[in-house]
Amino acid sequence: MSFVQLLLLQLLAHILTDFTFQSYKQAKDKNEKGFKSKFLKWHILIMFLSSWVLSLQWQFVFASLFIALTHWLVDGFKPYLNQSKWVGRYAFFIDQGLHLFFLLIAVVVYSNWFSMDVIIDMPLSEKWLAILLAFVFCGKAVNIFIKEIFRFFDIRVGNTEDLPNAGRLIGLTERYLILVFVFVNQFAAVGFLLASKSILRYKSEQEEGFNKTEYVLIGTLLSFGFAIGSAILVQLIFMGEAA
């Protein structure tokens, strides 16, 4: 196993634990209660197990413990970040930045001090791992990133009580389609998808009787931006490498 493969696997473990496997209710409870949250210990246990299992190495257990411990500390103190008038609006991004910083330290230290003796051979190349990571990231994780960006810029719209679930599903579907289109070099299809969505959204807004054009436009651009950016990043890093 290479350093890049191990790093990609740990990033996958982080995204699965912090976004895919965690409900909105659990995340809210941890954000408000920190160390007192009943969900925090289970979240950290899942973080540890995901990190260790996906490392495919027995010796990585100590690195996984480090990742889980720092994750516990960051999440435990997050309510203080949220309540701070100076950094409260940056809390989500600081939280994620710290998690990724400690994860990187663990992978770098482990790769320099231990041999990569895997339990089973890694079945995926670095490029295929990166593609898998892009698809997982562009699922629930991007929905949450978009929500936090809206909150950061205080972007709101009126009556959208009936939209969240449908909106998340539409966003997830469009991002997966974009990733496929970019990976198979069909960029024209991305433009067609954007144009089709714009027409349908415009008609829907006129029928519903209230204007949320700017809200929808920003959400669409962010959704497309994350998907296109993720796909192009993978293409640039692994340019010329066979999948």
What does this structure look like?
The chain is an all-alpha fold and 243 residues long. Helices cover 76% and strands 0% of the residues. It contains 9 helices and no strands. The longest helix has 27 residues. It is flat, with a radius of gyration of 20 Å. The two termini are 16 Å apart.
Provide tags for this entry.
243 residues, mainly alpha
Helices and strands, in N-to-C order?
HHHHHHHHH
Estimated helix fraction? over 70%
- Nearest-integer average pLDDT: 85
C-alpha Rg, in Å?
20 Å
Distance between the termini: 16 Å
Describe the sheet with the most strands. none
Shape: flat
Write the layout of secondary structure elements.
Elements: H1 3-20, H2 24-33, H3 40-55, H4 61-83, H5 91-113, H6 126-152, H7 164-183, H8 187-208, H9 213-237
Helix pairs in contact: 1-3, 1-5, 1-6, 2-4, 3-4, 4-5, 6-7, 6-9, 7-8, 7-9, 8-9
Offer a quick outline of the entry:
The protein contains nine helices and no strands. It is mainly α.
